[in-house]
Q: What sequence folds into this?
């Protein structure tokens, strides 16, 4: 399997889907949204985008399965499975905040082998494949060289429907805010990971995510020289959906703070 060739095909699919989303954003009617759960919104744009992605990907690896946020065709493949978020940052999209992305990953057995994130507002396509460098619009990217949390810009996300650990998370926010340059919440996990991969953020942490939020970003951060682990420090973030991603130099410092509040 030529992952480089497949990855480049996927970048085109992501860009084409992004153009569809960009066009729809100009005349989007917020009254057409549906609720999958508390504060968990979806629209015809998400659903149509996922259908377009699945139809295109099915031509590349016909035997592959699909794990998608909108459950358009969630059949599990024996070896290969695409993990798709057609519109990561739906809440931003619905409210007209221009930070949202298409996220597509390919997993072989239990290993991520392709990751593509297309951030629509800035027309930026981040991508990597197994054993490759990480790229942004054709140029190699690397994580930052910052070695101290106190000089770091850190990204996170806020829980929006499962508030059982909110008190611990707010305590974590409070401590991290006091020990870094700043704490940012963009509202799209895929973008947070992409920005960590290219050095805009030095680290990112969040819990209560889904595999399609983070699958592509995990691979891109790793191929850009960063580290990704779950809140316990293991290599299981894709399944626990508690994630810490860093430039590899502030990992210990950040995880000690996370563990202090979440162990």
A:
């Amino acid at each position: 399997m030529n992952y480089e060739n497949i990855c480049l095909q996927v970048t085109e699919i992501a860009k084409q889907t992004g153009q569809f989303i960009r066009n729809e954003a100009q005349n989007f009617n917020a009254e057409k949204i549906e609720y999958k759960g508390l504060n968990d919104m979806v629209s015809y744009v998400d659903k149509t985008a996922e259908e377009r992605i699945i139809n295109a990907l099915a031509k590349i690896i016909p035997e592959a399965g699909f794990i998608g946020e909108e459950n358009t065709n969630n059949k599990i493949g024996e070896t290969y499975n695409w993990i798709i978020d057609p519109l990561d940052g739906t809440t931003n999209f619905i409210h007209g905040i221009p930070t949202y992305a298409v996220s597509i990953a390919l997993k072989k057995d239990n290993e991520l082998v392709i990751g593509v994130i297309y951030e629509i507002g800035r027309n930026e396509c981040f991508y990597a494949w197994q054993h490759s460098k990480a790229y942004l619009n054709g140029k190699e990217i690397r994580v930052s060289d910052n070695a101290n949390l106190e000089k770091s810009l850190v990204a996170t996300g806020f829980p929006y429907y499962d508030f059982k650990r909110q008190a611990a998370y707010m305590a974590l926010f409070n401590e991290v805010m006091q020990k870094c340059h700043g704490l940012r919440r963009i509202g799209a996990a895929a973008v947070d990971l992409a920005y960590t991969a290219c050095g805009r953020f030095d680290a990112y942490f969040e819990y209560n995510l889904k595999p399609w939020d983070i699958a592509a970003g995990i691979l891109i951060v790793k191929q850009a020289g960063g580290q990704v682990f779950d809140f316990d420090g293991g290599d299981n973030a894709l399944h626990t959906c508690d994630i810490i991603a860093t430039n590899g130099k502030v990992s210990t410092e950040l995880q000690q703070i996370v563990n202090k509040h979440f162990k």
